[in-house]
Nephrocystin 3-like N-terminal domain-containing protein (Apodospora peruviana), 99 residues
Amino acid sequence: MTKERTCFGALVLWCFGGPGTGKTVLASVIIDHLLDTGCPVTFVYFDYQNQTSQAALTMLSSVLRQIVSTLDKIPECVKNICGTQDGEKGRLILKRSSS
């Protein structure tokens, strides 16, 4: 099953369903097609068994990394809100707010 909606002015495709129903295959085909047409795309795959990957900061870090990877230089504002994780050189990790 899929849902399509607009979120902050961007089109969002949300695929959901039980294991083995083809969500990953469907999403991969759509993502590949959009990338081939030059359309800017960010995406996140979730593993229902890996709760850590479903954390908001992890998801946002992944999306931010995908956006920044298209730029020639990392903006200072991004550097200010990101850190690195030991053993994962170059990976953008959003810092937890102290407030």
Q: What stands out?
A: Residues 4 and 25 are 17 Å apart (CA to CA). The chain has three helices and four strands. The mean pLDDT is 76.
